[in-house]
């Protein structure tokens, strides 16, 4: 079974208004956490993983955040070396780094590529200035395309763009332009996520106070269909509800999550799933570091029971184009009903979402699980 | 020690009176002062609102409210009088109980706030007292307040009861000013009770309270004869005979005594466990050599307003049933029977004397039994004459027949509104909208009027009071009494969800208002019911005729397109929560409706009107 390592870099230069990820700006961090030396703590946890698991070569490594690029190339490479030392890296390892178009230059990409990274994921979000302003992103639309260009020049064969759709004020044309820009940057992978107003974010407060209209689900549905159409026309294929790629461009690390493979999450708030156990680290970098010093950075652990495992299998698997094995469907009666409604189709021994089913995936999951 | 002993008091020195006052006009404080002036309470034990708090006094194993307090009072002539101060409930729903309390008295202290003037309910109770030929002692209270206008309101009171403004006593219950004068005036002006001491005993029940320790405590005023501890007593409406476990007076703690004679007021304990066996207005006599003729005026309490009461958590149904059974012991007017609603599950159809009674019952159930309840819109009683000439009574929209009805009668009330003149136009408009018929208008003083209307009870029951309060910034007061019925063009409006009627939302309304009711409910439900995978029409219909329609569009997107960096637990928990929520959905046909939506639809009208006021 493939094995992945996720590395969480909990830093951002500034916080985007919609973001509820576990990340901190310089002013939000306590005095005891220093960005420049933080990677050493992560390496401590990598060593801990090596001690516990012994050599298990990682098939995929993913640096996410936060903004990993904010650290600069050297600490990231140092962490990757540590993973190689303590766990090992498979020959065909996929090593992804998320980057913010703001905090990169050619040298950064060159160093990463030479340091063993194989894939770059760029947070582009949108080609529309007004959308970027509402999202409180600091980069300009052109920066993402330039970053993709630099990554390709550095020799990265796999480059991905993240898009956000359904932001209030966004038009159909904004979406067309965003997709066109991403496609023109010759990336081989595009993710598109609907904007979610998460509780406690500045965006939520602005929606609450009426400054910004609440994102409309019907608009989001239209935009999703539009994006799917545009990407399909451009030669991309969906392989997960929110992810499209060219041939060979799928993100193997993320597939691991959907396929219920095993991974170790390194860093504050990171989640792991190994040997039937799920655990997660302390969220705040300070408490995380304290936990590491005390020998255990974990905040919680659980072992999903049979029923919960079944739930997870359905909930994760159905989102993939390859779908779910018929044998994994708990309620065969629901299956007939869903096929009747045109939300899923059966191909061979797999159950797959149809185009309309993809937009109702959560409802499909609830139906498949029955009572 | 008082000279006059219970059971052997000369009726000539007895004065029975009540205090008629609006809430907050100082009745409790005045009562406190009367306890002090008459020295029945040791000064060291005196505390504010002494009588009001007696229900928590359980040392003696008895729960007593301030139903009737016996006060020995040495008047200016040096004679010790026995003053019985009888409490009256202060609300429109309990007019009958008030009338029985008044019937136990020969006089009434009319207590009015000198800064506010008389209020509608006070006025209504005053009229009731005048009908009972009570001697009225007018008193203006709170004259120490800077805002007091004693001349203005003395003139107002004088005009209403037909006396000289100079006869209106001025007091400050707070400082004690003028309190003795009030008692002196009661002695001088309120007639002594008249009754035949030799005749068979007849005592009128003016209150009946269930006590956990002692069973039912019955408050009586003896009219004729004597009731002693050795007697067995009979209730004349039913003929039921009970042992007398205890006879006593309240002064202001319960004091057992040997008996009660003509004109005296006290309590009886017979050991019965249900106030229905000892009903307000009934006549108590002795079991042997008893009276044959009951005192007049007894009436069975009749519910006027019906509503469904449901536990929000369906599993609380047995608790609700037990709580109602218990409450019934202390509330002779409460009636209920099991009812099932598609939307709300198992509950009870309950009948109440009025809106306040309904609120009190609901509040007590929620507080004392710790239940969360939802009530359906209140309904009045309709009398329907069908095409074949037969008559039916409808207290629930679900009983309303579709078609085949030739005549519908609804109860009407005579309503009195007292308000500042500046709001007259607004309130007339409100009454007009509520199908009111103006009977007249009188000026109580230069800037206050009394408006009289005939209004359908159903209109009053539907947030009229809230509207009245909000349109007059709280200055208007309302009172009403039933005054028969009228024929009306009423229809049942059903609310259909995807073609299925939802019982809890059906309503009987005037034909002219069917549309606005239908629109209000369909719009509200559209907001509350989550989108389904198919389009759901919400319609309001009279019979098979749809009068208004809203549509919940089909949901197109139900997918969380975010991965939370491998946080599968969070996603699974979200899914588990959604599945749990789905279990609590009620199915109306194919439509899944969260219970909360039904509850919100039933309660938002209350909260929105409350917000306005």
Which terms would index this structure?
A: about 375 residues, alpha/beta, nine-stranded mixed β-sheet, 15 strands, globular, B: about 625 residues, eight-stranded antiparallel β-sheet, six-stranded mixed β-sheet, about 35% strand, disordered C terminus
- Provide the low-confidence segments of chain A as ranges: none
The residue ranges of chain B in which pLDDT falls below 50 over 5 or more consecutive positions are 53-66, 604-613
User: What proportion of the residues of chain B is helical, as a percent range?
Assistant: 10-25%
Radius of gyration of chain B: 28 Å
C-alpha Rg of chain A, in Å?
21 Å
> What is the string of helix and strand elements of chain A?
EHEHEHEHHEHEHHEEHEEEHEHEHEEHH
- Determine the N-to-C terminus distance of chain B: 52 Å
Mean pLDDT of chain A: 93
Which structural class matches the secondary elements of chain A?
alpha/beta
Largest sheet of chain B: 8 strands, antiparallel
Largest sheet of chain A: 9 strands, mixed
Total DSSP E strands of chain B: 34
Helix fraction of chain A by DSSP (H/I, runs of at least 4): 25-40%
Number of helices of chain B: 13
- Largest interface by Cβ-Cβ < 8 Å: A-B, 43 and 24 residues
Number of strands of chain A: 15
- Shape descriptor of chain B reads globular
Q: How is the largest sheet of chain A built, in terms of strand order? A: 7-8-6-5-4-3-2-1-9
Structural class of chain B: alpha+beta
**Outline of chain A, from the CA principal axes?**
globular
Distance between the termini of chain A: 31 Å
């Amino acid at each position: 079974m493939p094995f992945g390592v996720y590395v969480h870099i909990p830093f951002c230069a500034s916080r985007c208004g919609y973001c509820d990820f576990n990340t901190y700006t310089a002013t939000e961090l306590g005095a005891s956490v220093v960005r420049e030396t933080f990677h050493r703590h992560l390496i401590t946890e990598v060593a801990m993983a090596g001690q516990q698991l012994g050599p298990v070569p990682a098939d995929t490594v993913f640096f996410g955040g936060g903004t990993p690029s904010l650290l600069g190339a050297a600490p990231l490479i140092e962490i990757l070396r540590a993973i190689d030392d303590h766990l090992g890296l498979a020959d065909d390892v996929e090593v992804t780094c998320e980057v913010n178009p703001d905090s990169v230059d050619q040298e950064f990409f060159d160093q990463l590529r030479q340091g063993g990274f194989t894939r770059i994921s760029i947070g582009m979000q949108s080609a529309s200035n007004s959308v970027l302003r509402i999202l409180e992103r600091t980069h300009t639309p052109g920066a993402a395309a330039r970053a993709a260009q630099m990554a390709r020049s550095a020799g990265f064969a796999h480059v991905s763009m993240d898009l956000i759709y359904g932001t209030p004020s966004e038009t159909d044309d904004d979406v067309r332009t965003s997709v066109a820009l991403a496609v023109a940057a010759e990336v081989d992978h595009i993710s598109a996520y609907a904007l979610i107003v998460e509780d406690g974010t500045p965006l939520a407060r602005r929606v609450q106070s009426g400054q910004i209209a609440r994102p409309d689900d019907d608009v989001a549905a239209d935009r999703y269909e539009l994006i799917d159409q545009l990407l399909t026309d451009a030669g991309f294929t969906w392989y997960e509800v929110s992810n499209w790629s060219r041939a060979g461009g799928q993100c193997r690390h993320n597939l691991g999550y959907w396929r219920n493979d095993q991974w170790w999450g390194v860093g504050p708030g990171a989640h792991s799933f190994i040997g039937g156990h799920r655990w997660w680290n302390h969220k705040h970098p300070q408490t995380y570091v304290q936990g590491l010093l005390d020998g255990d950075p974990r905040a919680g652990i659980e072992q999903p029971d049979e029923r919960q495992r079944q739930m997870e299998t359905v909930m994760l698997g159905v989102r993939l184009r390859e779908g779910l094995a018929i044998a994994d469907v708990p309620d065969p009666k629901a299956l007939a009903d869903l096929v009747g409604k045109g939300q899923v189709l059966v191909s061979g021994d797999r159950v797959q979402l149809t185009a309309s089913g993809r937009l109702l995936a959560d409802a499909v999951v609830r139906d498949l699980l029955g009572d | 020690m008082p000279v006059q002993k219970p059971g052997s008091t000369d009726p000539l020195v007895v004065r029975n009176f009540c205090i008629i006052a609006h809430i907050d006009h100082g009745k409790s404080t005045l009562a406190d002062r009367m306890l002090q002036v008459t020295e029945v309470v040791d000064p060291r034990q005196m505390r504010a609102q002494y009588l009001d708090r007696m229900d928590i006094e359980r040392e003696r194993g008895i729960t007593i409210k301030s139903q009737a307090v016996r006060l020995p009072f040495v008047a200016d002539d040096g004679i010790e009088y026995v003053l019985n101060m009888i409490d009256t409930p202060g609300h429109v729903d309990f007019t009958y109980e008030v009338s029985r309390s008044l019937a136990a008295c020969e006089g009434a202290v009319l207590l009015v706030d000198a800064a506010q003037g008389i209020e509608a309910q006070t006025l209504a109770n005053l009229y009731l007292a005048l009908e009972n030929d009570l001697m009225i002692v007018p008193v203006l209270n709170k004259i120490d307040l800077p805002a007091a206008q004693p001349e203005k309101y003395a003139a107002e009171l004088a005009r209403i009861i037909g006396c000289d403004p100079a006869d209106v006593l001025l007091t400050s219950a707070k400082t004690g000013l003028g309190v003795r004068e009030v008692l002196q005036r009661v002695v001088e002006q309120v007639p002594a009770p008249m009754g035949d001491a030799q005749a068979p005993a007849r005592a009128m029940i003016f209150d009946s309270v269930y006590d956990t320790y002692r069973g039912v405590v019955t408050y009586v005023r003896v009219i004729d004869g004597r009731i002693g501890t050795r007697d067995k007593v009979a209730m004349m409406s039913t003929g039921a005979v009970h042992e007398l476990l205890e006879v006593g007076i309240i002064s202001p703690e319960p004091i057992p005594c040997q008996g009660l004679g003509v004109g005296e007021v006290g309590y009886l304990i017979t050991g019965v466990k249900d106030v229905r066996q000892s009903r307000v207005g009934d006549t108590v006599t002795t079991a042997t050599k008893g009276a044959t003729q009951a005192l007049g005026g007894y009436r069975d309490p009749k519910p006027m307003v019906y509503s469904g009461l449901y536990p929000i958590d369906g599993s609380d149904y047995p608790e609700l049933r037990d709580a109602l059974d218990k409450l019934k012991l202390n509330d002779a007017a409460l009636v209920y029977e099991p009812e099932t609603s598609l939307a709300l599950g198992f509950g009870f159809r309950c009948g109440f004397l009025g809106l306040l009674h309904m609120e009190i019952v609901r509040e007590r159930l929620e507080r004392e039994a710790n239940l969360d309840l939802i009530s359906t819109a209140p309904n009045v009683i309709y009398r329907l004459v069908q095409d074949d000439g037969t008559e039916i009574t409808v207290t629930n929209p679900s009983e309303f027949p579709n078609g085949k009805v030739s005549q519908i009668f609804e109860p009407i009330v005579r309503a009195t509104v007292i308000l500042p003149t500046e709001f007259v136009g607004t309130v007339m408009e409100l009454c007009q909208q509520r199908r009111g018929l103006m009977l007249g208008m009188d000026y109580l003083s230069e800037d206050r009027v009394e408006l009289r209307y005939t209004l359908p009870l159903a209109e009053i029951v539907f947030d009229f009071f809230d509207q009245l309060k909000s349109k007059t910034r709280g200055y208007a007061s309302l009172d009403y009494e039933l005054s028969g019925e009228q024929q009306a063009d009423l229809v049942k409006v059903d609310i259909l969800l995807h073609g299925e009627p939802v019982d809890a939302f059906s309503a009987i309304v005037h034909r002219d208002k069917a549309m606005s009711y239908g629109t209000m409910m369909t719009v509200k439900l559209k907001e509350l019911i989550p989108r389904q995978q198919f389009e759901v029409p919400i319609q309001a219909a009279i019979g098979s005729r749809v009068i208004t329609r809203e549509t919940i569009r089909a949901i197109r997107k139900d997918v969380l397109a975010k991965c939370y960096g491998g946080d599968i637990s969070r996603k699974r928990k979200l899914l588990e929560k959604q599945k749990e929520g789905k279990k609590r959905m009620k199915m109306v046909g194919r439509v899944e409706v969260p219970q909360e939506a039904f509850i919100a639809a039933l309660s938002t009208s209350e909260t929105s009107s409350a917000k306005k006021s």
